[in-house]
Amino acid sequence: MKYLLLGAGLQGTAIAHDLLDQAEGTTGLTVVDGNAESLKKLSERFADKRLSTVCCDVRDAAVLGPLMETAQVAISAVNYWYNADLAAMAVAGKAHFLDLGGNNDIVAREFELDEEAKEQGVSIVPDCGLAPGLAGILGYWLVEALDRADSLKLRVGGLPAKPLPPMNYKVVFSVQGLINEYIEPAVVIRDGKLKTVPSLSELETLEFPPPFGQLEAFQTSGGTSTLPQTLAGRVPDLDYKTIRYKGHCAQFKLLNDLGFCDSVPRQGKEGTMSPREMLAQLMDEKLDLPGPDVVLLQAEVVGYKSEKAIRRTVRIIDHHDSTHDISAMMRMTGYPAAIIAQLLASGEISAPGAHPQELIVPGDRMIELLRLRGVDIEITEGLPGEPA
Questions:
Q1: Dihedral over alpha carbons 282, 284, 285, 289 (to 10 degrees)
Q2: How do 73-76 and 2-6 pair as beta strands?
């Protein structure tokens, strides 16, 4: 099976590791990136004859077109704004396409390629990372197992293994993506209807096993992707919140209230820059902190099975892989994408057209394959109202 990977950054590295070291049947992996140094590091890291690299802009159709034609699956680990055009190139080259997502407007453009993808016999699957991605797959799987679901609550966070000042947080993925999550409206289902609520709102407390203890969770955008639309009319209450150490939400809300997330440029002594650009720059500098990270995920459904009230919970606590130097966020974002790519390449998923990942990726199969990669996944059942 031959893969084309676009992007040699953190998530691209995790995807490459999975495809070369953990997947079955990989015969070739071509990685494209505009940064020659990143490609050099990737080649030296793996030293695998199946790996080849191409240094070019991912918008260069003259280079990417032929590469799409020789790959069974193309995986985008570059910034989300490239994904709609890359999906179109993949369809033209008769390659399956998936990405890590990050923007609903871009995903809508990808879904517009549905008929073309069907004609070419390939699949387009946006939003295949952690959240959006794995969280939605697990949430849908939980709902499907019940006769009736009354609520679905998804809680996900990437954190330093130990709280670190100044915000009890360290950068574990794109700062611009993080700011988007914190300031754009969050889509929820309330009383059976699709609604939006402000991000950084509805602060709650939840508890994880030691050493974490009590944490906080609050509304953020984008984590559910298409899931609210998929489950509208089936689940009367659905929301997604980001997990952080206590105090983080109030800190960022203050920054937002003071205007540091505004995108309108302002004139300063050293030129023009928006408050948001300055904030992102400072966060990249000040929150690029040492030490391992951890990813926490909790998906909980409450409803009825065989006329009995039930609560089912999936909980993941994933840590930095020091043996391979792969962070928890890299693992939990890159591995689900790599797994979906493998299921498409092998034909285990056969669904031409553009599809939400929750509708075509079997949750139980995803759990099985993540466990083979050393991801600790705990599934519990109890009565509604009982602690997970």
A1: 130
A2: parallel
Report residue 369 CA to chain centroid gap. 17
Helices (H), the chain: 10-17, 36-46, 61-70, 83-92, 104-111, 114-120, 134-144, 175-183, 227-231, 248-257, 275-286, 328-346, 357-360, 363-372
| CATH number for the domain formed by residue range(s) 2-127 | 3.40.50.720
pLDDT band at 112 (very low <50, low <70, confident <90, very high): very high
Tokens of 317: 């606590």
Token reading at 40: 């050099």
pTM value > 0.90: yes
Measured CA to CA, the distance from residue 83 to residue 98 in angstroms comes to 9
Assign domain 134-328+367-382 to its CATH superfamily: Dihydrodipicolinate Reductase; domain 2 (3.30.360.10)
In the chain, where does the domain assigned CATH 3.30.360.10 lie? 134-328+367-382
List, by residue range, all CATH 3.40.50.720 domains of the chain.
2-127
Q: Is the preceding peptide bond at 132 cis, omega within 30 degrees of 0?
A: yes
| Torsion (CA) 101, 245, 164, 336 in degrees, nearest 10 | -30
User: Per residue in 348-385, pLDDT tens?
Assistant: 999 999 999 999 999 999 999 999 999 999 999 998 87
Place of tokens 């953190």: 10
State which H helix or E strand residue 189 sits in. strand 186-190
* Of 275, 154, 284, residue with least CA distance to 220: 154
Short-list 6, 133, 173, CA closest to 82: 6
